[in-house]
Structure formats: C-alpha cells, structure tokens
Amino acid sequence: MGTRCDHRLQKEKLAQLPGILRETGIDLWLVWVRETIQAPDPVLPLILGADLVWPSALLFTATGEQVAIVGSFDAAVIPGDLYDRVVPYTEGIAVPLRAELDRIAPRTIGINESKSDVGADGLTSGMKALLLEVLGPTPHAARLVSAEILVGRLRGRKSPLEQMRIRRAVRITEGLFDELDGFLAVGQTEREIQAFVHRRMAELGVGFAWQAASNPAVDAGPDKPFGHGAPSENRTKRGHLLHLDCGVQSEGYSADLQRMYFFGAPDEVPDEVAHAFATVRDAIARAAEFLRPGVRGVDVDAVARAHVTAQGYPPYGHALGHQIGRFAHDGGTLLGPAWERYGDAPHRHVEAGNVFTLELHVPTSHHGPVSLEEDVLVTETGCEFLSTPQRALRCVPS
User: Fold this and answer.
1) What pTM was estimated for this model as a whole?
2) pLDDT tens, 98-133?
3) How many Cβ atoms are within 10 Å of 346's Cβ, its own excluded?
4) Enclosing H/E stretch for 58
5) Which residues pair with residue 235 across a beta bridge?
6) SS (H, E, C) 229-275
7) Residue 50 backbone zone (phi > 0: left; psi -120 to 50: alpha; other: beta)
8) What is the C-alpha to C-alpha distance for residues 326 and 251, in angstroms, rounded to an integer?
C-alpha cells in the first residue's frame, strides 16, 4: 500500500487537499479505519501509504492541518514528514478524538460513504456505528456528511507522479500487445494466449490491473460470450476476430486497453468487419474531441453513443469510460449514460488531471465483436491520448 520510505506520492496528494476541502465546503475530512490490511479504505494509500491496526482517525482541515489519532502501537507507522501531529492512545480513541473535534470545531465533517462511488465508500457499516457511538454525547455526530465529492476530486486529479506511473503502465501494456504480434497464430486457444501474457508480465515484474483470471480477457471469434469471463479452450480461426482486454499495474498504478486482431491479410477483412471497426474507432475519436474540463460525463458518453447508433448499431450496454488510477476502475466521474446502476457518477463534471478509458463495442454477424479501449488524460483544454490509438485492425498472417 505505497512506499514506507518515499512519500512523494502522499505529499502530492495531501497538498491538493486544503483546496478541495474549501471547494466542497467540508470543514474537516475524517478518515476512520481499523485493521486496514483486512478492510482497507481505498483512499489510504493516497494519504498514508501504510496499514493501521487499532481504530484510527486521520483528520484533515481546510486550513491544511493534518492530525493522526492512532493506537500507541501504530504511531510509529505515521510518517513524520506527512502529518503535523500524531496523537497516540492506549485504552480508547473516544477521548482524544472528541478533544480534537472540539478544538477544530468543524461545521461539517466528511466521512467516506457513498452510494455511487466505490472509491469513496471505504467506511464500513460497523465502523460508522462505532463512530456514531463515540460521537454520540457530542454535537459532532450531527455534522457528518458524505465526503464523496471530496474523495472523487482527490482520486481523480492525478498528480504529476500519478500521471507518470499511469503512463508507464500504459507503455508496458502496449508493449505486451506488440509482442503478441509475433506470437499469435491460427489454432491457439484463448488460454494459451493468456498464458503467454501472464508469463511476460511475470518476467517484467508487473502486476494485474484487475483479477488475473480475466486479465487479459481473450475473446476469439463469434462463439465466445463477450464480457468479463475467463479465457476458454475456444481456438483462433482464419477469418475470425480476436479481442483482448489487458492492463498491467506498475508502481501501484494501472492501465486498461483493448485491441483487435484479424486472422488473415488486410485485403481479406470483410466489409462488415471493416465498417464495425471504423465505427468504434471513430466514436472514440469523436468522444476524445469533445472531452474537456467542465463537461458532464453523461454528455461525453452521448457523443459516442450517437455515432454508434447513426451507423446502424444498437447502443452499447455499458459506460463509455471510467477513471483509472490505482485501480482499473478508480471511481469518481463516469463517462456513462444516466442509468440507475451508475447513480450520480455520470452527472458529475470532468476535471483536468482525470484519466479515463474510452471504450465501446459493436457486434458483427459471423466474426466476433469489435471492441477498442484507449486511455486518455484530461488537460486544461482538452484531452491527451496516453495510449497510441489503434487505427486499423492488427492482421495476423494465416
């Protein structure tokens, strides 16, 4: 969960906090955790980079004060160059926590609970019950609010070091796709293709941006259910498509890319496949042209969705893009439709520093689905492709 001797990342993130607190109108952010190796809060690597055992309260104010109230045995893991004060306790946290809240006197206290954003929902129900019990005799219990917006902005505004690490994960993932150009052949099973990628990842010393069983996802031809399933004994065939969805995790940060291969020569690509590929490629390009700070996620998705349907395809059944960072799905604003399952996330606004995927798929009748995914960084004026967009099918001689 971060580096114990190098806290550059946490320093960059903590430097963002006072401004975000002022923007959101939250006077105090309270990160309330225990036994984090079993029940980790997703924000902890950004603000601490270590695990805590006893019930702990990490307090952050809009004026830039940072206080850690932790068990006496945990005090040694709090970096002295990150927090202004460490308040250790032995018998119980209630008294020192109440005293700090009385001193700070916040009007609002943000806690990590959210219905829409898993990255901002680190507070367990048991820990919230304990917090209410601890604060029960005080007025502070009535001041608790969701820190969802705060956490989304903190996670979403990638710092320079975060951006550098994501770029490296993207480069490594693209390198794996390049290596597949010389490995793929007709007659291979999906499992054999995945095993090649897993072997190379181990040799490169990188991890998985999501569970290994479906990373990479490998979908050969039209007879494989498309989604998050694991590879099968299904084999590649001449005239069929191959879809791969792969992402490595490097230095704690992730990439998430999809690429398309065709088994045959470029002049053998069927018109139906060529049209499907062009539709997906161009929908991503149109969304990227529209993507900039201040637009809503739902409106970015609508640009790509309109292009797909105008080309005669059904609407794709997922969001156009999610944020990536420490995880392939990093929470915060979503580039997606206004569907119940996405909650408020598509209605939030894009910010500079956000890193999104742009991904969608369309079907073909006899060759398999066509699906692409690129990673982009939102800049002050638009967006930058971190990946090299796939402009044409990668053809495998057969």
Assistant:
1) 0.94
2) 999 999 999 999 999 999 899 999 999 999 999 999
3) 23
4) strand 56-61
5) 189
6) CCCCCCECCCCCEEEEEECEEECCEECCEEEEEEECCHHHCCHHHHH
7) beta
8) 9
| Burial class (CB within 10 angstroms; exposed 0-12, middle 13-18, buried 19+) of 300 | buried
Asked if 346 contacts 336 with a C-beta cutoff of 8 angstroms, the reply is yes
Q: Stretch 291-312: mean pLDDT, rounded?
A: 98
Q: How many CB atoms lie within 10 A of CB 195?
A: 14
Distance CA 101, CA 110 (A): 12
Contact call for residues 371 and 360 (beta carbons, < 8 A): yes
Spell out the domains of the chain, with CATH numbers in brackets.
8-155 (3.40.350.10), 157-396 (3.90.230.10)
Give DSSP secondary structure letters for 322-374: -B-SSSSS--SS-B--S-GGGTTGGGSBP-TT-EEEEEEEE--SSS--EEEEE
Nearest partner of 311 among 361, 260, 356, 261, judged by Cα: 361
Distance of CA 342 to the CA centre of its chain: 15
Give the span between the Cα atoms of 319 and 106, in whole angstroms: 37
What distance in Å separates the CA atoms of residue 59 and residue 68, rounded to the nearest whole number? 6
Q: Which two tokens stand for residue 26?
A: 């939250």
Which among 267, 260, 259, 214 has a CA at the least distance from the CA of 240?
260
What's the mean pLDDT in 307-326? 96
